Amino acid sequence: MFSLLFKVEQYTAKALLKLLPELASLDEALPEQLRMQAQKEVDSWLKLPWHELLAALRLWVEPYQQKYAKWADDAESNSEYGAAFRLLERHETAIYLYLQALERGEKRAALILERFLGAL
User: Could you name the domain of life of the organism this protein comes from (predicted)?
Assistant: First the structure.
């Protein structure tokens, strides 16, 4: 599960850099800070039983999915940033749907993320 999610994050980051090359000039300390914060969260989640882990991840992703969907709708008319916001929305929605499918025990849940990756 985590390796596929990590792959989605990597591919999305690369696609965002193509859409917004100015992101490459961000302070290099910022990604390290984000990585350290994410590692703390992952460490706490890994202690949870499987069903609680999935619920925690879904609840964590849900507000971002909603926020990014709104941003994508709001940016629809902005040709400069619209594609980037739509990518973020598709990314977060794919992860959200994947986690829901895992919670339901769907055997082919990974197809949701694989379809997202194939569309990039």
Answer: Bacteria
